[in-house]
Q: What sequence folds into this?
């Protein structure tokens, strides 16, 4: 087992980006599986979600890349578009100082754009089975330089009915390829794939009870709610606790109006945009009362951009996108 990343002789830029990502020590699954993955063995990792399986494979991928080769060397197969995009972003983040190139190859996107990017050359391709198979069949994604094939959430891939496409993709890849399978469960059809396409794999099984929360800072916060069904005494008690700081967050609705006196509010969050413009100023005005500075944050979906623009025009104001670091605002 490996207790420190320093023991793995990782590339300096990769090690730098691992620490920069906030990973100080290898998780349990990384301690047990990372060395085998980096050493080129076929590996099966069975562990619960959130244990660090995906990061394990990404570190192994980045460590083994030939940076002089700009063509695809690693193929990562996942069941959903969202997961493909998320893994693609992590690959770029952990490979930032290596200048790694990556592409998310997924359905419901421009095929011609995919072909153009793949033909130009990317070192890591993350994608869903349908689009990956299509790109291989068109020879837009060339397989001759691929040395590592990762099946992430392998049980989910099979439950989505991708069995045939996975088999077809395997047959289009080089025969001496390294295969890494990451899964929460091990159904029979997944065992069939591992038996057929993997060479004496190293098996790493992490028990559910071994999942650790070490390194995760955990907090709670007292919250109160005020609603029209409360009687006067209940509402007064809620407001008293909020004013005195016993509860730090107050959740309320527009139906209560602006009759409650709450002088010390520095932040207002609109979980839903108000249905009318007048309600907006009543809500956020609480955070800037009595000459103090305040902050209002609006949660919006794509469908609500027009409503937000209407509010901006009506009050002749500008509502900016929330910056990544909000500590200086509050």
A:
């Amino acid at each position: 087992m490996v207790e420190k990343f320093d023991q793995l002789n990782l590339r300096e830029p990769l090690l730098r980006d691992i620490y920069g990502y906030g990973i100080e020590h290898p998780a349990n699954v990384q301690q047990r599986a990372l060395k085998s993955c980096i050493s080129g063995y076929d590996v099966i990792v069975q562990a619960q979600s959130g244990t660090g399986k995906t990061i394990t494979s990404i570190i192994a991928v980045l460590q083994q890349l030939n940076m002089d080769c700009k063509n695809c060397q690693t193929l990562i197969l996942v069941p959903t578009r969202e997961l493909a995009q998320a893994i693609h972003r992590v690959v770029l983040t952990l490979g930032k100082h290596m200048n790694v190139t990556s592409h998310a190859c997924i359905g419901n996107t421009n095929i011609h754009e995919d072909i153009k990017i793949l033909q130009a050359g990317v070192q890591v391709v993350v994608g869903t089975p349908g689009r990956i198979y299509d790109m291989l069949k068109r020879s837009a994604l060339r397989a001759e330089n691929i040395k590592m094939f990762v099946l992430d959430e392998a049980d989910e891939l099979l439950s989505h009915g991708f069995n045939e496409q996975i088999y077809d993709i395997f047959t289009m890849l080089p025969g001496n390829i390294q295969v890494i399978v990451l899964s929460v469960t091990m159904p029979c059809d997944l065992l069939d794939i591992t038996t057929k396409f993997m060479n004496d794999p190293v098996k790493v099984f992490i028990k559910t009870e071994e999942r650790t929360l070490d390194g995760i800072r955990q907090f709670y916060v007292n919250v109160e709610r005020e609603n029209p069904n409360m009687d006067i005494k209940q509402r007064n008690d809620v407001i008293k606790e909020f004013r005195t700081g016993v509860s730090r967050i107050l959740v309320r609705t527009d139906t209560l109006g602006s009759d409650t006196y709450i002088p010390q509010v520095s932040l207002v969050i609109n979980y839903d945009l108000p249905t009318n413009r007048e309600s907006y100023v009543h809500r956020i005005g609480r955070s800037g009362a009595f000459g103090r500075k305040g902050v209002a944050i609006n949660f919006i979906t794509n469908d609500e951009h027009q409503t937000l623009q209407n509010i901006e025009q009506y009050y002749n104001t500008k509502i900016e996108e929330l910056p990544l670091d909000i500590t200086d605002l509050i």
